[in-house]
Structure formats: structure tokens, C-alpha cells
Amino acid sequence: MRMTTSGNVHQLSFMPRLFPVNAYFVEEKDGLTLIDAALPYSAKGILAAAARIGKPIPRILLTHAHGDHIGALDALKTALPGAEVIVSARDARLLSGDKSLDPGEPQSPIRGSVPKPGAVRARPDTLLVDGDRVGSLLAVATPGHTPGSMSFLDTRTGALIAGDAFQVRGGMAVSGKVQPLFPFPAMATWSPAEALRSASRLLELKPTLLAVGHGRMLDDPCEAMTAAIQAAERSLQSESKGRASHVTANRP
Asked: With a cut of 70, which residues of the chain have pLDDT below it?
């Protein structure tokens, strides 16, 4: 595990050279907010990093319920029985193994490593909706990668922890835009169109730091976010034209 610090944000990167999977600590007055739980074997490294910083972990906050973001949740909850587990109300269903869709949602299958029913023993203590606060963090609903994906803006510094709303590994991209050097976040994206809308919303926050699930942290990320959003727009427009041409060509 590699730990990188920017201000009061600590990135914990597992397998950083091969397949980087990131979790984050955000320092608060009462200790560390852990954002995401990485991989099943990551608990030991997460606990060691907290000991190195010298602060307790009173809460575990999840951006979404894919396996590479909740992997060590049960082990961490066992080691930290008093830690509050927090997730969006929508992705709490995914955490329980429920992959059903609501009537108003895009009816595309939910992708990625969603746990099977009963596989995760830890239960959320707090369910979030858009606009809620967790200490200094503002919860921002960013559906797309999953229906209940959330990002978190540190209102003190402008640092944005965005889960898989963007990726940096393999080239900066909005979730759902395939990057050949690291295609996995796109392959696990439920709705690229929703993801694009969410990415545009995050850009409006004008973050000073972007911290995502895969890849290094970016200072002053707005220019890179803008370019990624424009590339995702072009990709979706091209796909839409391709589908329309296919339908026209196959009409009797």
C-alpha cells in the first residue's frame, strides 16, 4: 500500500502500479473519516495507516457499493465495532444485494461487482441523500456508475472525493467512457448518460483537488475534468448516431 497526502486528505492506494484501488482518509476534529473500504485484504493496511497518522476512525463512508470499494468493510467493522457505516440510501440496496431498478431510472442492468444478498454482514448506520453533511463533507448525489453513487466535497478546502464518477488511471475520463489502457471503470458503469450529467455537476463545484477510486490525486482538476466531459459528450453522441444509423439501415 502507498499513502499520499494532500492537505487533510490521505490517499491509500492498493496495487498502485498494477491495478490501483484507492481509499481515502479525510481528517476531522474527532478523527478520520474513511471513504471507501478498498479490497478484502485492505483492512490491515487501512488500520496501519490510521495508526501512522495517529487518529481514530469513527466513521466509514462509502461512495458506492462495488466490491473494490466495500471489500474490507466487514473486516473493518469487526476491528472497529463503534465505527459508523454510512452510504447513500439508494446504494444501501446494492450493499444488501438488491439490484432492482426504480421506475424512473434508466432500465439498464446494474454492472460491476455488486455483492450477493447476505454477503456483506455490516449494516449501514446512516443513509444519505443529496445535500446531507458528514462532518465537513457535503454529500453530492452522482448517479451513473451505480444508481446511488455519491461524491463528497470538503467544504473547508474544496477537495472532492468522487469515487468512480471520474477515473485518472489510464487517462482522465468520465465514468462510462472507455479508456483502453484501463477500461474497467467503464465496463462497470450502469448509465454513461447519467454519469455524464453527474460529472458536469461536479465540475460546477470547482474543486481544488480531485480524488477518485482509480489513479492519482489531481490538483486544480477543472481543466482536466472539462476535457473529460467534452470527450464523454462526443462519445455518447457518436454512439447515439451509430444506433440511429443502424435502425435506419434495418428498416424494411
From this structure: 241-252
